[in-house]
Amino acid sequence: MLPKHIRSVLISHVYLLSPRKTNTFWMSTGMFPQEFIIRFAEPTSVFAVTVDSYNVKHLKIEKNATQNVSQFEFVAEKGKGGICLHICFKCQRAGINKFGCVAEFENTEGHLQSNAISLNGGSVTHLRFIITAGYDHFVSVHRVSIQN
């Protein structure tokens, strides 16, 4: 987990993510993991998230349903992880999610990636997005759309 002063800096910069434009963006500092947190004004049911990004390879999403920003629970992940690389490579190629594996973000060289990620529809106050790997040292997030 990031130190408190760094988390607050990341939270304060989320305003750069415009709901309608992709020419403003949040950019990483070059090392992984990187994270940013979106806070809702009131508890909100979230069924899906669409992330428009560049060079993101793996993304993990966590939620929090309280006003306290310190305790999060895992919600979804997009990207390969550990044991999945060995056990179910054939399942991933076939598009089968047998072992809970998820495909990596596509490397879109020169174009934005757009990835829809299903969530469970539970009530959230905060969503934490943790980028655990990228296709380059720097990644950017241009838009996060919430389906509620």
From TrEMBL:
GO BP terms: intraciliary transport
Source domain of life: Eukaryota
A GO cellular component entry from the record: intraciliary transport particle B
Record Gene3D superfamilies: Galactose-binding domain-like
InterPro entries cross-referenced by the UniProt entry: Galactose-bd-like_sf (IPR008979), IFT25 (IPR033558)
Classification via PANTHER family: INTRAFLAGELLAR TRANSPORT PROTEIN 25 HOMOLOG
The protein's name in its UniProt record: Heat shock protein, alpha-crystallin-related, b11
Organism this protein belongs to: Mastacembelus armatus (zig-zag eel)
Lineage: Eukaryota, Metazoa, Chordata, Craniata, Vertebrata
